[in-house]
Write a structure and sequence with these properties.
The complex is a heterodimer. Chain A is α+β, with helices and mostly antiparallel strands. Chain A has 25 helices and 51 strands. In chain A, α5 runs parallel beside α11 and α7 runs parallel beside α8. Chain A is elongated. Chain B is an alpha+beta fold. Helix content of chain B is 17%, strand content 33%. In chain B, the strands form two sheets. A six-stranded antiparallel beta sheet of chain B has the order 1-2-8-11-10-9. The model of chain B has no long low-confidence stretch (mean pLDDT 95). Chain B has four helices and eleven strands; from the N terminus they run βββαβββαββαβββα. Classes of the chains: A alpha+beta, B alpha+beta. At the A-B interface, β8, β15, β39 and α22 of A face β7 and α4 of B.
């Protein structure tokens, strides 16, 4: 037997299909298809958790997504553990381990339950009031303690070994909810040929048909009809049926997020199956058929294990064959609870009494109750309950007072009516409207291409729901351009339920000590909401935040309306005047895994590698991240640390030569008869006179006159330039140029194409550069006379086409060999084969930085910071004086940019040549002045220069160029460094080496 | 100075292969490619010299029908922008130079690389990371688009019902390949 409370012949599970699982170390038997909640109830386990704040014993409240109490940790293995799983949603699989939460040392005996006794000091707003003083204690004392005590469940300690999948999907019609309405809409829409997605969070389609025992549709039992309809739909090519799939978010333009739980119910999922799949759906039409959720009654001690929603008890009975008790009490303000009581009674369960706070229940219910021999107390309320770890009795009193009767019960089911699930409608930016007649919020106008049908739209009667759904399904298809097709579905046997109440029942009392729970998950009681109103919270938004009502992960699915009604009553206003809080995504909690899906590990972000990467890796390069690029930083040899490697590389380049991977530089091919004119407008320099075959260093400004990017530009032909940008600037410089071309200079006949990755670039720098490449090059005269510094030639190297530039970012004579990228590795091998015997080295970005600093060449973004003009950077020479216009020309004329006293880029030499300054360090004139000191500038670049035999630095300093040779100070935490202002050129001051 | 041999070409995905029972994912052979931008007056002339009519409708492509350029396809990327691919490695820059009118042609043969995704699960595999509607009625055979795959830009071209060419920049190709390989493990058709 799979649990003592399993009723033979009841439910839809197969008795022979048993699975075993553990809960808090005990082994239990369940049936295949059980949820963890139904399996525990079958085994007589009602105590499933401890409440969040008071640590009160809690059982299961519901049987579906709304569950606030029965949250558990589910473990598959050490790395696959998930806290806060709703036991009502988790299907049991063979070998599953479940553990209760928020208790120590055990669920039955929880030390934290002392909070329940101390509850008078834990009233609503307690945190805001109690921990105000002293201020320092918040950080050191209060917050750590509260954080330790707060929260449910335990996060897994190791990385998740599951994988998660993602899928974009488009459809004509998305239908959310697979109850009778959703299925009807899907059948109707599918018949027109429209593409349809039907999703439901449950393991099977059917919704309320899974427990509404009296309903038949098209002549068969409701659930059988639903199963057939789902199978029929799944077989159609134009329909995708997704079970175990929650629509959690409804975004702009009918973009709906679904998460499908693919393997959570499987004992042994295949390794290639994702645990969850995120479906990002764009639907032309959306139909919401999300049903409604039953509310509990708000009365004293309504949270003991064994007290649950009547619909939940009915699901446990009719779907899982589980009786929630042997002596069941019923407390209701609504007819639906009677149906549960009747089903239980017919299944042989004793129903002690139906307590109805109304005087007049719906038609026919009293006579059916009488026929079944169930006592009904109308005009009565349950005013209290007893029981330690499970309800043991309910105490009943006639409304308005009188003698109390006690009924011994081991389960108490309740219904205060039904709340339409308008969550997704609200997320779609829809405004709910209060329906006075039925006392509930219903969808108003749809701001998107969407319709609500059935219970979530306030349509209660079965046939009316079906007809509304069919009409919506056809209309949605017609709106997608399909021809209407007729669908007829006939349903009968559903009860016509009346009644319902919002707010606290008689038993909740005005008493300030009564705990009548409104929000089970956050332990909010009716008196807390009244207190919030008394303390001045008059908006529901304030009441919500003060009490935390509806702010738990269940988002108040059972509590919002009660909380609102209690607040309205205390404020003496109508419910719509107090307002409803807006629903936000997600509808139910969504795992990080499903949101991140493929984007983790190697797929977290693209790692861009140059064509030479493999070679660099084989030769011991240490890489640094530059944006998404992996760049070779330095190449340590055995026994070398970074400094030793960089010193060697720096020395070798200047003594013989070095090879450097410059492939990451941005490259833009600027083509068209107006190309030079366009570059004249984009750069400060002049380009029209640059001859084909020549290169020039260019500075690009923003409109405000500050340096935006720089790089060498080669003129390949009259109408073709090869522009280079900084590595990090490549995409934004192209966008910047494209933006101006399209908006400011559309009359120019010129086009921009990114060619960054077309070319693999080998920089060969140093006195032996020409000797290295000469044997490999054909068709180009490499002599300095024929190909001087700053020239570009097209020819061949190693038999493949090259754009060969004679340029230098080191101050040495050098070349940059551009070859089509796929030839890069082979050409690099050939160049290295020439270079190595000549004593050359390969060098990385660190050496590149040092060598350029020795020559005072700036790096945009390091020596400039978006507030530096060309004049500030000592690059005034790069501004063409005669040009009438270029981007930034007017910005540069602003008085502040022309005034004295701007910070200028200069060199700094420490008095002690062995001291290397810290980049970012501040510069002052007088180190003995009081703090805060007058800061005159800061260090932008600083290195040890092996070639200079001393430290070198560049800095931005107020009026720096007028202060050559003067002494300044760089204060550090424990000492002060004395520095002298110098030229930014530290090596080969005459600049003769580039011509070598 | 004459050179004995030409440097060998190395693709970024050489030797890689991935897929499952439902989808095959493999790098394509090198091809020549041209990024073309053109004023309207140059379109006819460019079409003529290239032997393929540059398409003018969004998301469409044109396959050359001429015998000597039969491995050539022109993809519409924007109102004045095309990507021409020649799997026969023809000298597209040389061919293009004969065209008249205002245009820009840039050799991007090595900037891009492509991955061929084929099989019943091809559409589902790409749909793991591409927000476009790839159903046959919206993205038929011959359709193309510059779009996203995961976190990268790609040019997607439907060669056949179950065959897609995914073009991406060279340095993004390892990401694109790995993404497709993971998504292709269990595509949900």
């Amino acid at each position: 037997m799979s649990g003592a409370n399993r009723i033979a012949g009841a439910g839809r599970l197969t008795p022979a299909k048993k699975v075993r699982f553990s809960f808090d170390g005990e082994i239990y038997t369940a049936l295949e298809g059980d949820t963890l909640a139904s399996a525990l109830l079958a085994n007589g386990v009602h105590l499933m958790g401890r409440s969040f704040k008071y640590h009160r014993p809690r059982g299961v409240l519901g049987a579906g997504a709304e569950e606030p109490n029965a949250l558990m940790g589910i473990e598959r293995d050490a790395s696959r553990q998930q806290p806060n799983v709703r036991a009502t949603v988790q299907e049991v699989f063979e070998g599953m381990t479940a553990v209760s939460q928020n208790r120590w040392p055990s669920l039955a005996f929880d030390v934290g339950s002392v909070n329940n006794l101390l509850s008078p000091i834990f009233a609503a707003g307690f945190y805001y009031k109690t921990f105000m003083w002293p201020k320092i204690a918040w950080e050191k004392l209060y917050e750590p303690i509260i954080r330790g005590a707060a929260g449910l469940g335990v996060a897994p300690a190791s990385a998740d070994t599951d994988h998660y999948s993602s899928r974009y999907l488009h459809a004509d019609v998305l239908i959310v909810g697979g109850g009778v309405s959703g299925l009807s809409a899907a059948l109707a829409a599918a018949k027109t040929g429209a593409s349809v997605i039907l999703c439901d969070e449950q393991a099977q389609m059917g919704g309320a048909l899974s427990y509404e025992s009296g309903v038949s549709v098209d002549g068969v039992s409701g659930f059988d009809w639903a199963s057939n309809a789902a199978a029929q739909l799944a077989a159609l090519d134009n329909v995708r049926v997704l079970t175990r799939t929650t629509a959690f978010g409804y975004y702009a333009q009918n973009f709906v997020g679904l998460v499908e739980r693919v393997t959570d119910h499987l004992a042994d999922p295949r390794a290639d199956m994702p645990r969850e799949r995120l479906w990002q759906v764009r639907a032309r039409q959306v139909i919401l058929a999300t049903g409604s959720i039953e509310r509990h009654m708000v009365f004293a001690n309504n949270d003991r294990p064994g007290i649950m929603l009547s619909s939940a008890a009915r699901i446990y009975l009719n779907q899982y064959g589980v009786a929630v008790g042997t002596k069941v009490g019923v407390y209701t303000a609504n007819d639906s609870a009677y149906e549960t009581a009747f089903d239980l009674k017919r299944a042989g369960v004793s129903v002690e009494a139906i307590v109805d706070c109304r005087d007049n229940p719906g038609e026919g219910l009293l006579s059916t109750a009488a026929d079944l021999g169930i006592q009904v107390l109308t005009g009565h309320s349950v005013v209290d309950t007893k029981g330690a770890r499970r309800v043991s009795s309910m105490i009943v009193e006639r409304n308005g007072g009188g003698a109390r009767q006690t009924f011994a019960v081991d389960a108490l089911i309740m219904s205060a009516g039904w709340t339409p699930s308008v969550h997704l409608y609200s997320q779609s930016r829809g405004k709910v409207v209060w329906d006075d007649g039925t006392q509930r919020f219903l969808p108003g106008e749809c701001p998107q291409d969407c319709a609500s049908v059935g219970a979530c739209n306030g349509t209660d009667a079965l046939q009316a729901s079906i007809d509304e759904a069919i009409a919506a399904g056809v209309q949605a298809a017609v709106d997608c351009g399909k021809k209407p097709a007729s669908t007829v579905i006939t349903g009968e046997g559903a009860g016509d339920w009346t009644g319902g109440m919002a707010g606290s029942a008689a038993g909740a009392g005005a008493d300030t000590t009564v705990k009548a729970f409104v929000d089970f998950q956050n332990d909010v009681t009716a008196k807390d909401i009244r207190l919030a109103v008394r303390e001045g919270m008059h908006s529901i938004e304030h009441v919500k935040r003060f009490t935390t009502n509806g702010m738990a992960s269940d988002q108040g699915k059972t509590s919002n309306i009660h909380g609102l009604a209690i607040a309205a009553e205390a404020l003496n206003r109508e419910i719509p005047q107090v307002g409803l809080t807006t629903f936000r995504a997600p509808y139910t909690p969504v795992t990080f895994g499903s949101i991140v899906n493929h984007g983790r590990g190697g797929l977290f972000d693209p790692a861009r590698k140059t064509p030479f990467h493999d070679w660099e890796e084989r030769h011991g390069a240490v890489f640094e991240d530059v944006g998404q690029w992996k760049r070779a930083w330095y190449y340590p040899r055995v026994g070398e640390d970074m400094h030793a490697a960089v010193n060697r590389e720096c020395r070798t380049v200047r003594e013989s030569a070095g090879l450097f991977d410059a492939s990451t530089l941005g490259k833009i091919e600027v083509v068209g008869p107006d190309a030079a004119q366009f570059l004249d407008l984009m750069y400060t320099n002049g380009w029209s006179k640059l001859k084909p075959g020549r290169c020039k260093y260019g500075i690009m400004l923003r409109e405000d006159g500050f340096i935006y990017d720089d790089g060498v530009v080669a003129r390949i032909a009259e109408d073709r330039f090869h522009v280079t940008t900084t590595t990090g600037g490549a995409p934004r410089v192209l966008h910047h140029m494209e933006d101006y071309l399209q908006t400011e200079f559309p009359h120019l006949n010129v086009w921009l194409t990114s060619s960054s990755e077309q070319w693999a670039v080998i920089a060969v720098q140093g006195p032996k550069a020409r000797e290295i490449i000469a044997p490999l090059v054909e068709g180009i005269d490499l002599s300095s006379e024929a190909m001087p510094h700053m020239s570009a030639r097209e020819g061949r190297i190693c038999g493949v086409p090259t754009r060969l530039f004679r340029v230098s970012f080191t101050g040495e004579a050098g070349y940059e060999i551009n070859v089509p990228a796929n030839y890069g590795p082979a050409v690099w091998d050939a160049v290295w084969a020439q270079a190595e015997p000549l004593g050359a080295c390969v060098y990385g970005t660190e050496t590149m930085h040092v060598l350029r600093a020795e020559k005072g060449f700036i790096i945009v973004g390091q020596d400039t910071d978006g507030t530096v003009t060309p004049h500030d950077a000592g690059l005034g020479w790069a501004i063409a004086k005669s040009k009438p216009d270029y981007v930034g020309i007017r910005g540069l004329m602003r008085p502040d940019l022309m005034a004295d006293g701007r910070k200028q880029l200069i060199g700094l030499k420490t008095k002690d040549p062995n001291t290397v300054l810290e980049e970012g360090a501040q510069i002052v004139a007088d180190p003995n002045q009081p703090v805060p000191m007058t800061m005159l500038g800061h260090v932008t670049s600083s290195y040890w220069s092996q070639n200079c035999g001393r430290s070198i630095a560049m800095a931005l300093l107020v009026d720096g160029r007028a202060k050559m040779g003067q002494t300044f100070y760089v204060p550090m935490p424990d000492h002060t460094i004395e520095v002298e202002v110098s030229s930014t050129v530290f090596f080969d001051e005459k600049g003769e080496r580039v011509n070598g | 100075m004459a050179k004995a041999t030409m440097a060998a070409a190395t693709g970024p995905l050489d030797g890689q292969v991935a897929g499952s029972a439902l989808v095959s994912i493999k790098p394509m052979e090198p091809a020549s490619r041209l990024a073309i931008r053109a004023r309207p007056d140059a379109i006819a002339s460019l079409s003529k010299v290239l032997g393929v009519k540059l398409p003018q409708a969004p998301k469409t492509s044109a396959q050359s029908t001429a015998a000597k350029s039969r491995q050539r396809v022109a993809l519409w990327l924007g109102p004045d922008e095309w990507l021409v691919i020649d799997d026969g490695n023809a000298d597209l820059m040389g061919i293009c130079a004969k065209a008249k009118g205002l245009y820009s042609a840039v050799d991007v043969s090595h900037r891009n690389t492509s991955v061929l995704v084929s099989g019943k699960g091809a559409e589902a595999t790409i749909s793991a990371g591409c927000p476009q509607n790839l159903s046959l009625d919206v993205f038929p055979v011959g359709a193309c688009a510059r779009t996203l795959l995961g976190k990268t830009e790609v040019v997607l071209y439907r060669v056949e019902e179950d065959v897609f060419r995914v073009e991406c920049w060279r340095s993004f190709s390892t990401y694109v390949f790995a993404f497709l390989a993971e998504a292709g493990q269990s595509p949900m058709i």
